[in-house]
């Protein structure tokens, strides 16, 4: 038998259920990997080996007692540090919330614990989920386990769910939660040869998830393969009366209905995603994806999403606008950081606290958001962006009259080196060019690994589906996965 | 038309007034959280994770708060918007945990409506007047800062944070302090009838922002000032009085009115500047992305409408039209929902105790309530709320009068004893022997005694000094210890004196 930590969610769960190994053995194996990689990869902000073992013991006891086991029973996972966890520090990778220990548990994490999962630790991320490279965390960069052949540069694991993607790729966790606002699950998955799905907006509760941009934020699952993502997403999703934007719909049995057969399905290739100057390797992997889906029985047609070019500017108005308001609560009054200079008044305390508590990227977005909502600019920016957002949604709706899913590259490049884009916010924002449109439209979308570039770095393909059609997305993902035969993993150097 | 004018050196000035009233919605829990809303709880004991704006917390609208606001809108005949939306009003303050207030700027729940204030000659309101209401929207209240708890620091109490408010915005339709006062009182009456706000202004359940400008009659509106958080009808009137005079002084002194926010000082009855328009916040309103638009269906609206009580104007008309009460009595009895409720309970008890229709005993009940009972309660420093006499007991007393068992003047005595002892009227009349004597024989015997003892006065009477009749009545009543039926006494005396 191979190493336990090479196994994914389904294999671990089934192995525990079958008594091939105990849940505690699983937890301890991953705990060991986490501990060994922490200095090199910095994937976790807090590690909680005792939580992983505690949950595993409960599963083993249940199994011994012959009780029914949950869908994630015996599977230890990483929890993105944007989810509030009872009694465990929750920071959103910010200095502002350093030391903040919630007395509540997010709905999504609670559902996972209820399904029998255990927590390995809180995963590093871009500060307040703002970033595409995991370079904005107050707790340091996450280092991708992947390297170029020369092994010199440290690469990004993507962002904002970079701790999640790095941990899965490095076998520190079989799966992890992510959140996706403009691509924060899909782009890191693509950069690390892992799989991640952002469901339809409203499928997973946002209650207890530190807010970045409320109308876009959506939790999702990240793992080794499509099946694992489906199992985990099923455990996470569901109506939550505590979240007004949560969808009051039953959770479909996605896992049981998985099928790689695409016969009778139509796949759309959006013409506008063929960006000028896109690397040939990205184009090539896209063509390969088309061939795979045809091979799976799908008909492939070109479609048009004419407002695609406006998606990025629209996103960078709406997301910062919401963020500027959502982050106003971090004021030093009730919890988190308080910087109170001698003799300072309330305004001074606000200024000092927020100057010290937020990193440069967060400040940049608060400033952008404050600006676009200001009197005299509101209509030109925010109102206009909302109109364009509607047009983008309509583009998708029209395309989905013709096709069942869309296939695109996940990101315009493979993982770049840390520091490469850090001084050029616009270049950094361009990373989200393929993922942002689906976020604006609230559509389910996933990234699956499709191959390696010339430097041996993973490339991902994105599948975008109709609202509520996670099944169609997962199935197309499975069709690619089963043909891509992606087995590459980073060589262990840490 | 109001004739209220400020006499300036350059002529008469007209005052233009608009009011924004924040009314706390009566509900057990807050607008977006399940925390309790009771007044006067220990600081920070009614605060949920949502009210404290902990990371990742989300608002969920409280159906009851929406229902109350819709019912209020219906009570002022307003348009109810089946599609409305919540917006965030962004600003930093220590009593505002989220850093924004959830309110409704762009699409309020309730649109155009109106209320009618009644003519009041004495107050300078010559005829009934309709005051337009532009909108009612729902929003969160803020917490409270406490500056007197520590020598150098301020404390924050978040009990009020997130409590539902209705902001009721009038048109600039009022032209005198009296009209504004009548508007606030009438609105308060309606809110209390509907049960959507308790109207306790001293507890901050109703607070007024007073917009005032002045102009020469017939000219365009002048620049207005807004005086914030005025918390009684009297203070609203004082604010207008002072602010209008101040503005006239400024304008006649060659100055200009600055659009600004002002504060009212109840100790001096004056207003002072708080901040000018230039210092005004840019609230950066935008739709709250945590909340979906509020969409009301017909069944919900129907339920709201069906649950509305009879409203004050309708009740007043019914009291006059169906019960035959005077306009004055009807107005007094309908001014507050509790008074009307007490009256109607009394009326129904009194009618059944006397076996009559309510309309037949309504005048008696209304007169007694207004001219006897209110005064008696007042003397005790009590109100109907904590009256020691229940409406059942009062109805029994009225029935004793109605059936002629006791006289009106004896009834006053009985009421006093009831208020002191809490005993029933019947028991008191029995115990104290206050039953009215209608036995002709007994009265006749006393009359004979009195006429014999006052032969001189009898002859004076017979000589034409008819005013002495009252003397004989008084003597007879005295001899009967007040219990003689006055009608019988009159008849016997008339017969005997010829």
Task: Describe this protein's structure.
- The complex is a heterodimer of chains A (494) and B (498).
- In chain A, helix 5 runs parallel beside helix 6 (186-192).
- Chain A is globular.
- The mean pLDDT of chain A is 97.
- Chain A contains 15 helices and 11 strands.
- By secondary structure, chain A is an alpha/beta fold.
- Chain A has helices at 9-18, 23-41, 49-64, 107-114, 162-169, 186-192, 226-236, 280-295, 311-326, 346-357, 360-372, 378-402, 425-429, 436-440, 470-484, and strands at residues 44-47, 76-80, 118-123, 175-180, 195-198, 218-223, 266-270, 299-303, 405-409, 445-452, 458-465.
- In chain A, strand 7, helix 8 (280-295) and strand 8 form a beta-alpha-beta unit.
- Chain B has 498 residues and is an alpha+beta fold.
- Chain B has 3 domains: 6-303, no CATH class; 310-432, no CATH class; 440-497, Arc Repressor Mutant, subunit A.
- Helices cover 40% and strands 18% of the residues of chain B.
- Chain B has 15 helices and 16 strands.
- In chain B, the strands form 4 sheets. In chain B, strands 1, 2, 6, 7, 10, 11, 12, 13 and 14 form a 9-stranded mixed sheet that branches. A 3-stranded antiparallel sheet of chain B has the order 5-4-15, with no helix packed on it. A two-stranded antiparallel sheet of chain B has the order 3-16.
- In chain B, helix 3 links the parallel strand 12 and strand 13 (260-265).
- In chain B, helix 7 (337-354) crosses helix 9 (391-402) and helix 14 (468-479) packs across helix 15.
- At the A-B interface, helix 9 and helix 10 of A face loops of B.
């Amino acid at each position: 038998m191979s190493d336990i930590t090479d196994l994914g969610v389904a294999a671990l769960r089934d192995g525990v259920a079958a008594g091939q190994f105990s849940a505690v053995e699983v937890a301890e194996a991953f705990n060991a990997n986490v501990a060994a990689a922490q200095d090199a990869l910095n994937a976790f902000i807090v590690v909680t080996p005792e939580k992983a073992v505690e949950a595993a013991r409960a599963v083993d006891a249940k199994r011994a007692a012959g009780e029914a086991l949950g869908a994630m029973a015996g599977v230890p996972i990483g929890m993105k540090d944007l989810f509030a966890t009872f009694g465990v520090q929750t920071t959103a990778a910010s200095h502002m919330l350093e030391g903040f220990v919630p007395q509540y548990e997010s709905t999504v994490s609670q559902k996972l614990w209820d399904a029998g999962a255990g927590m390995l630790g809180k995963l590093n991320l871009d500060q307040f989920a703002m970033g595409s490279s995991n370079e904005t965390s107050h707790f340091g960069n996450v280092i991708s386990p992947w390297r170029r052949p020369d092994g010199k540069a440290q690469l990004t694991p993507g962002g904002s769910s970079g701790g999640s993607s790095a941990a899965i790729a490095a076998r520190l966790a079989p799966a992890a939660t992510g959140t996706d606002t403009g691509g924060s699950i899909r782009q890191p998955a693509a950069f690390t040869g892992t799989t991640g799905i952002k469901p339809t907006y409203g499928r997973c509760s946002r209650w207890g998830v530190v807010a970045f941009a409320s109308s876009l934020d959506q939790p999702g699952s990240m793992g080794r393969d499509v099946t694992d993502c489906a199992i985990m997403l099923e455990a996470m999703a569901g109506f939550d009366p505590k979240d007004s934007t949560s969808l009051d719909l039953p959770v479909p049995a996605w896992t049981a209905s998985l099928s790689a057969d695409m016969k009778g399905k139509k796949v759309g290739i959006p013409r506008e995603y063929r960006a000028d100057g896109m690397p040939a390797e990205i184009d090539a992997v896209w063509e390969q994806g088309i061939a795979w889906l045809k091979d799976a029985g799908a008909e492939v047609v070109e479609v048009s999403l004419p407002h695609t070019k406006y998606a990025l500017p629209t996103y960078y108005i709406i997301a910062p606008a919401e963020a500027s308001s959502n982050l106003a609560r971090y004021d030093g009054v009730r919890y988190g950081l308080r910087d109170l200079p001698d003799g300072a008044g309330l305004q001074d305390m606000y200024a000092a606290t927020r100057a010290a508590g937020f990193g440069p990227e967060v400040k940049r977005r608060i400033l952008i958001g404050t600006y676009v909502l200001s009197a005299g600019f509101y209509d030109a920016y925010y109102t206009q962006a909302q109109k364009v957002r509607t047009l983008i949604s309509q583009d998708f709706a029209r395309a989905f009259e013709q096709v069942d899913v869309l296939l695109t590259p996940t990101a315009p490049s493979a993982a770049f080196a840390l520091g490469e884009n850090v001084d050029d916010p616009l270049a950094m924002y361009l990373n989200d060019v393929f993922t942002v449109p689906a976020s604006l439209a609230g559509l389910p979308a996933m990234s699956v690994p499709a191959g390696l570039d010339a430097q041996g770095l993973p490339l991902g393909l994105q599948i975008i589906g109709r609202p509520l059609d996670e099944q169609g997305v997962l199935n197309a993902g499975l069709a690619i996965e089963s043909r891509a035969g992606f087995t590459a993993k980073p060589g262990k150097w840490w | 038309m109001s004739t209220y004018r400020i006499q300036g050196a350059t002529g008469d000035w007209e005052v233009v007034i608009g009011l924004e009233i924040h009314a706390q919605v009566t509900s057990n829990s807050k607008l977006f959280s399940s925390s309790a809303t009771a007044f006067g709880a220990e600081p920070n004991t009614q605060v949920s994770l949502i009210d404290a704006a902990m990371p990742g917390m989300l608002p969920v609208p409280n159906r009851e708060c929406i229902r109350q606001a819709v019912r209020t809108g219906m009570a002022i005949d307003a348009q109810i918007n089946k599609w409305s939306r919540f917006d965030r009003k962004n600003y930093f303050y220590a009593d505002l945990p989220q850093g924004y207030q959830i309110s409704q700027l762009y699409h309020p729940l309730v649109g155009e409506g109106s209320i009618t204030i009644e003519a009041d000659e004495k107050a300078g309101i010559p005829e009934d007047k309709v005051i337009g209401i532009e909108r009612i929207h729902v929003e969160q209240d803020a917490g409270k800062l406490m500056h007197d708890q520590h020598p150098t620091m301020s404390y924050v109490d978040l009990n009020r944070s997130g409590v539902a408010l209705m902001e009721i915005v009038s048109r600039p339709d009022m032209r005198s302090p009296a009209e504004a006062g009548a508007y606030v009182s009438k609105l308060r009456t309606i809110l209390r009838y509907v049960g959507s706000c308790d109207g306790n202004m001293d507890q901050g359940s109703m607070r007024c922002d007073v917009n005032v400008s002045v102009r020469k009659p017939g000219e365009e509106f002048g620049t207005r000032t807004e005086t914030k958080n005025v918390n009684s009808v009297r203070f609203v009137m004082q604010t207008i009085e002072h602010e209008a005079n101040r503005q006239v002084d400024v304008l006649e002194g060659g100055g200009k009115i600055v659009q600004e926010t002002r504060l009212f000082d109840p100790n001096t009855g004056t207003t002072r500047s708080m901040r000018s328009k230039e210092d005004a916040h840019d609230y950066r309103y935008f739709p709250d992305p945590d909340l979906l638009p509020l969409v009301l269906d017909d069944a919900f609206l129907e339920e709201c409408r069906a649950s509305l009580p009879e409203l004050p104007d309708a009740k007043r008309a019914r009291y006059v039209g169906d019960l035959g009460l005077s306009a004055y009595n009807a107005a007094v009895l309908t001014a507050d929902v509790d008074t009307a409720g007490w009256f109607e309970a009394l009326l129904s008890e009194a009618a059944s105790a006397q076996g009559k229709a309510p309309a037949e005993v309504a005048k008696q009940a209304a007169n007694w309530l207004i001219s006897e009972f209110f005064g008696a309660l007042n003397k005790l420093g009590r109100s109907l709320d904590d009256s020691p006499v229940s409406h059942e007991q009062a109805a029994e007393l009225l029935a004793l009068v109605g059936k002629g068992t006791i006289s009106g003047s004896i009834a006053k005595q009985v009421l006093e004893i009831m208020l002191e002892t809490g005993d029933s009227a019947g028991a008191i009349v029995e115990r104290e022997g206050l039953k009215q004597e209608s036995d002709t024989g007994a009265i006749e015997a006393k009359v004979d005694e009195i006429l014999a003892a006052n032969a001189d006065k009898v002859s004076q009477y017979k000589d034409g000094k008819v005013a002495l009749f009252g003397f004989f009545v008084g003597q007879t009543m005295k001899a009967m210890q007040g219990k003689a039926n006055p009608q019988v006494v009159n008849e016997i005396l008339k017969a005997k004196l010829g």
